[in-house]
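Hey,
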Amino acid sequence: MIDNLKFREIRVMTDWNEGYVTDIGYVYEYQSELNPLKQQLAFLNQRIALPTISTACELGFGQGVSVNIHSAASDVEWWGTDFNPAQTNFAQTLGKASGKNIHLGDEAFAEFCQRDDLPDFDFISMHGIWTWISDENRAIIADFVRRKLKVGGVFFISYNTQPGWAGLMPLRNLLFEHSQVMGASGQGVVERVDAALNFTDALFATNPAYTRVNPMVIERFEGIKKQHRHYLAHEYFNKDWQPMLISDMAKWLSNSKVEYACSANYLSHLDFINLTPEQKELLAGIHDPIFKETVRDFIVNQQFRRDYWVKGGRKLTAHEQLEGIRKQRVILTAHRSNISLKTAGSLGEVTLSEEIYTPILDVLSDYQIKSVEQIEKIVEPLGIDIGKVWQAVLVLAGSNAIAAAQDNALIDKAKNHTEKLNLHIMNRAKYSAELEWIASPVTAGGVKLPRFQLLFLSAYLQNHQQPVEWANYVWQILVVQYQNVLIVGKMLETTEENLEELTQQANVFALEKLPVLKGLGII
């Protein structure tokens, strides 16, 4: 064992990227499933007791956007690693800005997971990474979960899965092989990505039998071409890439003492938007949870799984579940006027009942925290019982219209750190449009704001009261950088045009964003 560990350490030192794309950084994205608070709705729905989370770890944190937001916005002590030193450097900068005690390093998994100074964790998470690492690293992570996840603790993992990826696996392999075989010496990763996409375009133009048999591949490929090249490089052009069935995942975790709990995707909990009566009846006859999920993935053609696994999870009684549901606190996270009474599952788009959803949304439209019990008491005279309220909460949360809210004491404790982190991000927006997320002490999670909205917020917090003032503030920042506003591919030329467009956007921000940001504790 010691000799094997030494061998792994030597590999880390001599081949530290292990075939993973490191020439360019990962996108500056945020993943809400890594927020421990988000577990509450999913676990309550599945009657699983949720542990108190005080220590957490993110494996492969990318640019560190999620881990830093979750650290700043909660009282959880976070640890993490990402072996790309440039990304770790950026993540550490965010950590210093928030002033929160966060522990982020650039060790490879083999190195990090063997550290003897790590605490045991209530929550271990990793987003997407599992698909792109070697079997050796998968074994290291499974062993880490076995040793370092506390009893009752939660392991979140997301990964590409089959059968949704089955038809696309040859396409991915073609893209990767082209970059390896046809890529020119000295060519950068983005150039290799573009060259592989162009070659595949030329191939598909010849009407190969592959696309005739798999016509959906052409549509998916058109979608791939529109995506950010940095994302594509990390998604499709790593040496290791293996979508797998949940049954294979269960085998990898068989010695980690964890059991599958449920999906982190709220909408996948709702059969009425995903399954026909015949499909529900078929699944009802399957008692093995892993095989049931495997069959369900075939029914919905699952492409990406977001799963919670629990070490020694405790089942709630029906009474405990109902009590927990009623105590659950939620808040509106989108402007009331922008919330659609439609949602979508694997069966397609579904129109929601106005008689149920409109009264519930009206209760929440003051952008204040409400418990499910408070909502229930107000809408009960309208014939909307607790079951309908809870289903609506899951649907709206799955549509990013509402979110779980943490306790007031935790909100107050987090505000100092979220304000510092958000100020850093707003200042960064003066020069860059890459990072579009700030932290809410109410949801303990991220809120997306594009660059101009971040700058409008910055102006507002500097006591510029009117939208026209915010527009002028942004324009002055753009002018000194020789930048203009770009609208639908058209660059605005004159000062008047730019200020008119910025003022229009600022007015929308004042009407639709400010009330939400105030409710979320950001203002």
